[in-house]
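Deliverable D2.4 — example input (structure tokens):
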């Protein structure tokens, strides 16, 4: 009951530190010492009980003893009420504030000294991996660095920058070397920004590579399934949707003299149905081409076709087959 009353009185004080449970002792100790100083009772944490003559004590000795006894009682119970119930039950058996305070420091200061070594070890051993976000892993390294700094071990910003660069994963080897050879120093925030930009660029490039692989997916020899008259053929149906999407994207980037072309289709030969698009042309005889529905059609000529793109580049397709039966011009 008495402890509950003391606890209620203390809970109204905004300077009261958090309830110590066995972790973060250094932080709790600093807060508790500040709290005890405000209460003007902190002296009994280090001062022994004053001695009084057994035979003939002076008034001053008795006064000092009475002051110390009252102060020690208040200070000891303020400290005990800053502990969890389990720790309270253990340390409340001790006689004086000095004994309680000394026992807490002996146990938890020693343990936190060990935790310092542990956090430094974590910092040194941490290595980024390719299967996680580099930016997220950089923040994890920074968190460990902040733990070290909070333990009173300063870390220079440039040292932290060098550590993060050194811990970049294997796939970042070239970018790591680029950062190492930068003559101008940059801040932690600047480094994280660079990593974020680079990571986004890599994700975009990877996505483009995947799309390129899909665009190169083989189709039935001769032409695209969507232009086949026998669209019910299984091979045609299997590739119809994907190939049309690829062709549509390619078509947007082609201009001038290229209307009716579908590019990057996976066709095994260039095929064109419009004679007016040829800049060079030779008639041929007795030549056929296999279409996607597995029937052949006659090739009436072979020549060169020039395509112009929105990028201002020009592409010349050579050995383009001219056949009247196909409905769309196919490239690549």
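Example output (designed residues):
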């Amino acid at each position: 009951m008495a402890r509950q009353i003391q606890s209620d009185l203390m809970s109204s004080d905004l300077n009261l530190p958090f309830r110590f449970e066995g972790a973060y002792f250094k932080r709790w100790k600093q807060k508790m010492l500040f709290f005890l100083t405000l209460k003007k009772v902190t002296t009994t944490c280090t001062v022994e009980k004053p001695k009084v003559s057994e035979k003939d004590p002076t008034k001053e000795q008795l006064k000092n003893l009475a002051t110390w006894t009252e102060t020690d009682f208040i200070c000891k119970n303020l400290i005990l009420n800053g502990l969890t119930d389990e720790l309270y039950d253990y340390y409340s058996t001790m006689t004086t504030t000095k004994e309680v305070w000394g026992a807490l420091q002996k146990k938890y200061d020693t343990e936190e000294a060990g935790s310092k070594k542990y956090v430094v070890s974590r910092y040194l051993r941490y290595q980024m991996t390719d299967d996680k976000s580099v930016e997220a892993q950089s923040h994890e390294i920074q968190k460990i660095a902040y733990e070290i700094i909070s333990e009173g071990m300063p870390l220079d910003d440039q040292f932290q920058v060098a550590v993060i660069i050194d811990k970049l994963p294997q796939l970042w080897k070239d970018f790591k070397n680029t950062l190492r050879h930068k003559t101008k120093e940059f801040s932690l925030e600047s480094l994280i920004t660079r990593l974020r930009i680079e990571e986004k660029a890599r994700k975009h490039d990877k996505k483009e590579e995947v799309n390129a692989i899909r665009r190169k997916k083989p189709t039935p020899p001769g032409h695209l399934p969507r232009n086949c008259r026998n669209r019910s053929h299984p091979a045609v149906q299997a590739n119809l949707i994907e190939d049309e999407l690829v062709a549509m994207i390619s078509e947007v980037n082609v201009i001038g003299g290229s209307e009716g072309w579908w590019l990057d289709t996976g066709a095994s030969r260039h095929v064109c149905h419009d004679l007016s698009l040829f800049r060079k042309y030779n008639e041929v005889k007795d030549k056929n081409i296999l279409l996607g529905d597995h029937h052949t059609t006659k090739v009436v000529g072979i020549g060169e076709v020039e395509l112009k793109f929105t990028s201002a580049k020009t592409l010349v397709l050579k050995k383009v087959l001219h056949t009247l039966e196909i409905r769309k011009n196919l490239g690549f």
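Confidence is low (pLDDT under 50) at residues 219-226, 228-259.
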